[in-house]
Fold:
Amino acid sequence: MAVIQSGYIPWRGFFSLIRSVDEYILFDDAQYTRRDWRNRNRIKGPHGSMWLSIPVATKGNFYAPINRMEVADRDWGRKHFLTLVHSYARAPYFADYRDELEELYGLRETRLTRINETFIRWACTKLGIETPIRRSSELEVVGKQSERLLHYCLQTGASVYVSGPSAQGYLAVDRFLQHGIKVEFVTHRGYPPYQQVYPPYDPHVSILDLLFSVGAEAES
Structure:
């Protein structure tokens, strides 16, 4: 099992982790963090890598969970879609996804976490990932970070907890082991490079770049 915070059009490592587990918990009631991956990600453009950021109403919500955050500009979707068109019109497989993405960006959803979940589920479908996805807010687990993750595992009956490398600094692995739960950390290394529309190669961009560049081969 893996528990990952809600993020906007994440990179390939995010989806590689989801593919590797039996269940993915979308950590939608974690505290929202500014200048992070919750509401933004990077794409390739003619002048290099660039940010796509969803404007979020943060005033008075500095300690609010992700699932309470709302967008501050209802027109953000149209702007992001037009940016993708401008950046990837010449990408080999952009046309394969254009119509579906135009529909997704036109949904006018106001809650950030639902926007993120919509794009995550869509990308999983395109990548052939069938891992079940649940929202953490549906499990009603409380507690500090490491203990909370442990209780997600206990509630779902997980025997292995898979995490990214950043959790090594705070995860109380011994507590998991006490409950018979093995902990595995992924390194996010060894992803093969691919031909991007604009050089130089940047591996740390949105999954959209991979899909537009290699199409169905992104499933492998």
User: Anything to note?
Assistant: Helices lie at 12-19, 76-88, 94-105, 112-126, 145-156, 173-178, 207-214. The two ends are 21 Å apart (CA to CA). Residues 2-138+192-219 form one domain.
